[in-house]
Amino acid sequence: MATQVAAEQGEEGVQYRWLILLGLITAAIMEVLDTTIINVALPDMAGNLGATREEIAWVSTSYILANVVVLPMTAFFTARFGRRNYLTFSILLFIIASFLCGTSHTLSELVLWRLLQGAGGAALLSTAQATIRQIFPLEQQGMVQAIFLLGIIVAPTLGPTLGGWITDNYTWNWCFFINIPIGIVATFLVTTFLKDPPGARKINPVDWLGIGLLIAGVGSLQYVLEEGNRKDWFADGLIIRLSLISAVSLISMVMWELSPRNKHPVINFHVLRNRDLSAAIFLFVVLGFGLYGGTFLFPLFTQGILGFTPTETGLTMLPGGLATAVMAVVCGKLLSGKQPLVDARYLIIAGVIGFSIAMWQLGHLTSVAGEADARIPLIIRGAAMGLLFTPINNAAFGSLKPSEAQQASGLINLSRQLGGSFGIAVLSTYLTRHIQYHRVDLAANFSQGNPAFEQRYAGAVSALIQHGYTALNAKQGAFALLDLTLTKQASMLAYNDAWLLILLSFLCVAPAVLVLRKPQPMTGAVDAH
Question: How far apart, in whole angstroms, are the C-alpha atoms of residue 489 and residue 435?
Fold first, then answer.
């Protein structure tokens, strides 16, 4: 295999693959990091730009909207313009938009540039991952895909910590400016060393109908997921209308893309005939649910219940991110070579078990838990993520032709992103409803006839009187303190339920592992890079 690849690409080309990989990883980390790094800076942005909490949320929403719309079309853009040109354009668009985001003076400016940033970021995941699949020999895919996935998995965990540090020590603008030097390095490496194979570009007629239906369907769906909880879901007329538009558009798009009359579909759904890819996409949806849902839940839990600062929260999550990195590399090593050392399906099953254990432990924390109580479950969760992402990715691409890799990569990254959006939307709503449910349930014991309540109430009144309160004020203050305790306990129980919901979702999709076929010895060549 190595001899054949060297003959096709030359020894110099073999050397340059690793420089290309470095450029692609740099770009991917920049893109994924930007989805989470600005979240902790949103309050500062709101104050600086004179925006409300609901308005400033569009800084995150606009980025994800553009990202999920463009992701399925990356195969079309790559085929039409060439992967080198498309990647270079996307990186440049990303860093220019980052600069404009950092220099924005109004909310509308910032949202507009975030839209462009999200559109540029799509290729930094999808096209980059497909390129790695195409330029490396198959026996090296396990390791190089694991290295690439490190950035995608670890960056969302590190983003809040880095964003908090930048915001505390500088200004929110620097959350965007740090992309510029990183993007310049990625642009240099990609433009200098990446080449397209002969005949790679295909100037086919544009599937305008498919593109229009895709934008309407996915864009409306993403808006519904982002804004649904804030607008009380189907109690809002706009959410209802966009849900109908999304359903009709997506169904129509799939029918049109599969129609024999459509000779050049913008999305080639025929790749889903590969059962390994279909099962992997199904698993990636729930992985996105668990990854982004957990990253959404944990900071809310630690800062709202345990009283952690953003920096303390980030440091608590850091060991889990490191565990993911280590396990991803280990899996990459085990899955490399013409004959992998371990069946990828066994690693996926181990990952599901480990993730389930972590969710069970997080689902049984109490309001007096500390950093040490959360550390072990987070490390187990991180290791399980490494056991899941790399083997599932390896199984998805293992039986695909290099020419199918770009389309598959777009669908895989879209599934993970939509899974994350579903996760945040579902968990946000679930959390709100269960806090109300547990509060009503606990309030049934919040009465004068309950000896436990009377004891706590009398103790609180006595403590407040000792601190100088009048008897009347002490009684009112004691009731308010106990009400805060009630709300905190209701919130704690709701967070426990949310972690267990993630656990249940993983157990429900675990049988999809059985659909994956036993890996075959890796053979075949890469493209003439």
Answer: 9
Question: Would you say residue 96 has pLDDT above 90?
Answer: yes
Residues 6+ apart with CB under 8 A from 474: 461, 462, 464, 465
- Tell whether the torsion through CA atoms of 422, 241, 59 and 73 is positive or negative: positive
Q: Which has the minimum average pLDDT: 26-35, 68-77, 111-120, 144-153?
A: 144-153
- Distance (Å, whole) CA 440 – CA 433: 11
Per DSSP, the residues of 334-402 read HH-SSS-SS-HHHHHHHHHHHHHHHHHHHTT--TT--HHHHHHHHHHHHHHHHHHHHHHHHHHHHTS-G
Q: Residue 379 has which token pair?
A: 């490390």
Per-residue HEC secondary structure of 478-525 comes to: HHHHHHHHHHHHHHHHHHHHHHHHHHHHHHHHHHHHHHCCCCCCCCCC
Q: How far apart are CA 345 and CA 515, in angstroms?
A: 10
Report how far apart the first and last C-alpha atoms of the chain are (Å, whole number). 15
Mean pLDDT over 49-62 rounds to 74
Find all residues with CB under 8 Å of 162, minimum gap 6, and list them.
Answer: 33, 37, 314
Residue 396, CB-side half-sphere exposure with 13 Å CA sphere? 33
Predicted confidence band at 4 (pLDDT cuts at 50, 70, 90)? very low
Q: What is the pLDDT of residues 414-439, one digit of tens each?
A: 788 778 777 777 887 888 888 888 87
CA–CA distance, 513 with 286 (Å, rounded to integer): 13
Asked if 144 and 522 count as a contact pair (C-beta separation under 8 A), the reply is no
Residue 490: C-alpha distances to residues 434, 444, 479, 497 (Å): 8, 12, 16, 11
Q: Which two tokens stand for residue 144?
A: 């190089």
Q: What is the mean pLDDT of the chain?
A: 77
Instruction: Look at residues 458, 467, 318 and name the one whose alpha carbon lies nearest to residue 382.
Output: 318
Task: Give the residue carrying structure tokens 């509308």.
Answer: 108
Whether the CA torsion 413, 415, 420, 424 is positive or negative: it is positive
Three-point CA angle 56, 290, 276, nearest 5° = 120
Mean pLDDT of 179-194: 88
Rounded Cα distance, 434 and 421, in Å: 20
Q: How far apart are CA 156 and CA 143, in angstroms?
A: 21
What pLDDT does 524 receive? Answer: 39
Q: What is the pLDDT of residue 2?
A: 42
Within 13 A of 508's CA, how many CA atoms are on the CB side? 12
Closest CA to 163 of 172, 154, 155: 172
Q: Are 173 and 406 in contact (CB under 8 A)?
A: no
> Can you give the pLDDT at residue 238?
83
